[in-house]
Amino acid sequence: MANKGNKKRRQFSLEEKMKVVEAVDSGKRKGDVAKEFGITPSTLSTFLKDRVKFEEKVREATVGPQRKRMRNALYDDIDKAVFAWFQEIHAKNILVTGSVIRKKALNLANMLGYNNFQASVGWLNRFRDRHGIALKAVCREDSDRLMNGLGIDKVNEWHAGEIIKLIADYSPDDIFNADETGVFFQLLPQHTLAAKGDHCRGGKKAKQRLTALFCCNASGTEKMRPLIVGRSANPRCLKNVHSLPCDYRANQWAWMTQDLFNEWLIQVDTRMKQAERRILLLIDNCSAHNMLPRLERIQVGYLPSNCTAVLQPLNLGIIHTMKVLYRSHLLKQILLKLNSNEDQGKVDIKQAIDMIAAAWWSVKQSTVVKCWQKAGIIPMELTDSNTEAAAIEPDIAIEKLWHSVAIATCVPNEINFQDFVTADDDLIISQELMDTEVIQGMVASENTDEAGSEDEGEASLPQQPKITITEAISSAQKLRRFLSTCVGVPDAIFGQLNGIDEYLMRRVTQTLVDSKITDFLQTK
Hints:
About 50% of the residues lie in helices and about 5% in strands. The protein is α/β, with parallel strands linked by helices and about 525 residues long. The chain is globular, with a radius of gyration of 28 Å.
């Protein structure tokens, strides 16, 4: 009996607790699970009761998976600030020592107003344990190699080794790449020169930009719904809008953030779970991607640092093609307004979203496959010469369109269409933290819903009246009559119009049926 009281109490890490919960979720009996993990039924019940808390901690990555206690730090705001700085440094593959972390903690503590805080070795050890950080000694040669870039040898090594291991268990249909790009959505041709090379780190131009995340698979058979990030959380143009061709989020910088990327990842993971699929997702190591949530159906593979220009399929022509199509659509809108003597009004967020999404869905499967082949991730195949020849014609049409608009809007002669397309290629797409921004970010995160909610960028744009279902049906009928007067309309266009008709008629029929039932019940 005396020995029983001296029995050492076992501590479980978050990872171990989640394995216990998952075992119960798999359908095993609780008694069998308790025996398998060597725990009492009461301990099992406690794990199940606290599962939401465990999942939240792991998903948000606020503590390392090996952590056994979830107690917060004594100086919680200092801890959060240092960890935010560490994540940024880690994403850039900059090697740091414990002494560097301690010095940074003292600097941030002073900025937060803590004069008595001591970044002791004990604090450092507890900080490392809380966040599952392993500080490793690295020889000078390895450090120089990381800091100076990986070079072509590293690219070849990745092609020959790591990527082969990553894709071994996946078909091209289940290998995906995700990446973000910035878009000056209100940019006009005559302002191309002023926008070229602008990083847009905030300020007034943040109102004129969006960040778009795109994701597609290696076979080109699946392009995921885009995620677009703006500055305005509630723009006037989205009032009464309940369906968009993309997901839309907002923050004060119109950048991709860690929270937004993780939210998107969790949604994709949920869809894959419902479809009983497992996928490989290749991403770069920008600051928004460096602390991922717990995922069940997605294996994440990081592209080597400083090599995304030659290894990332979306960077090798897919996003560029989307921008070509987006700017082309914008030029057509400008030309139509010039011909009808209309004022060149600003593009609002709703119009930009529609055009970006339309451009994304219009990127051809052959374009996607070629870019994956160019990245060396899937094998090269013989290129169809007919496809190459067919691609020349649209380029000629776009150049003619550009020439017409450029003359009418007085674009300088040294600016060409490619300059217009690539004008926003240098936009920052995720936050790069300075010490002051770490502190400001902590304050701003508490007011995320308020930041950027004002519709400053669209104050001059009139609010569009709500369109009724009857007006929509009438417009579709007018479009059908117009197409019937045209020569050589593809069958696919009529097929798409039929789909629109069916959707509208289904909506109006359901509305009428519901109103009849309501009238009948009221007379009873």
